[in-house]
Amino acid sequence: MQIPENKYQVVIIGGGPIGIACALEAKKKGISYIILEKGCLVNSLYHYPTNMTFFSTSEKLELDNIPFISNNPKPTKREALEYYRRIATSNKINIHLFEKVTSVKTKADHTHIVQTTKGEYITENVVVATGFYDIPNNLGIPGEKLPKVSHYYNDPHYYSTQKTVVVGASNSAVDAALEIYRKGGDVTMIVRNPEIGERVKYWVRPDIINRIKEGSIKAYFNASLKEIRENEVVLQTAEDEEILENDFVLLMTGYRPNFGFLQDIGIKLSNDGRKIPEYNEDTMETNIAGIFLAGVICGGVETHKWFIENSRVHAKMIMQQLDKRQKTIVNN
Description:
The chain is α/β, with parallel strands linked by helices and about 325 residues long. It is built from seven helices and 17 strands. The longest helix is centred in the last third of the chain and has 24 residues.
């Protein structure tokens, strides 16, 4: 009997590094699969800042023991894009790009119907490996929707000679502040904590601290942005309100997974504020039979918990489980 073109043993939602890792494992075990990615290949990485350098070394970003050769101890965004692209093309990964999944419905026979912007797929299993970079954490303050405000930072040249406020003290905020300063921008950081975050890359943290100490970059600690206006911002410090002249605002306040999508599928989330999805830590299977999670999505709002280097193993765990079930069915 010929298998329909839209039927697979597993549909993988998300074409990032972990989604690709899942495809590689499926291919090795002879499991029919397809990756559905709403954007370009490794879409989240593509939207990282132009000059971004990874915290991890190249070997910790490798998939399936395929060597990742970098010119530096810490690889750049461009090197990562090239690496993952070559893996996908060289291994002829079955992936549909620019095809967004709109729903996943589970039928009475435990098969799943995956609906997309371009079609429909029937599958016994689904792997959700969608990451977290698409939905920014909003501050919910007046003026946040103004054109001069962005939750994403790309290239420092855009902000040269401009008065730019950077909100946050994570890696993304620190990288943006330093790069814009070095391209001639007038940078002010607004940090809600008393100091620069401890998780900032260890070779960058001393740099930002010294730039702040010498006054090259202004910083307000224990402060928050209260309002954004056309040509200024209002910030709340521990002592009083201050108004600063301003051209651009970068809200580097982090991102979160698409919890609504998970809930629409039927995946349960913890109600303790962390919104951690329910899944079996040995198999990565959720409360819905045949639906699995892989990568950063497993951490709920704790997006720092899972990343490429420690979630690559999810791919093997999931495909081992599917292979085991397939062999059980054949033997019976």
